[in-house]
Amino acid sequence: xxxxxNQKKTIHRQTQQTTRKSKIKTQKRVLYIGxxxxxxxxxxxxxxxxxxxxxxxxxxxxxxxxxIEYRDPGDAHFARCRLNGGTIGEGSDKKIIVDWADIQ
Length: 104
Fold this sequence. Notes:
It is a single chain. The protein is α+β, with helices and mostly antiparallel strands and about 100 residues long. The protein is built from 3 helices and 4 strands. A 4-stranded antiparallel beta sheet has the order 2-3-1-4, covered by helices on one side. The chain starts with a helix and ends with a strand.
């Protein structure tokens, strides 16, 4: 059975798009976010939603740290890699810490 050249290209593109998440071997989904300023819940959601659907967000009463859970482990991995050491909120120069949460 012969396939048309256009069909091969389409299949190849679909394979490339799905391999991003399939290469992630961790099953961790929860991230710790530290070194936050107060009242950043909306900014946290805005920044972290870019990397995938969020299942849950919990911000401490003092507002200096939070935990965020993604639906997909690959999304959590990429958010951790991209946002660690960055800033959240307008005019903020405080670098945040993003790492795996130690949940048992």
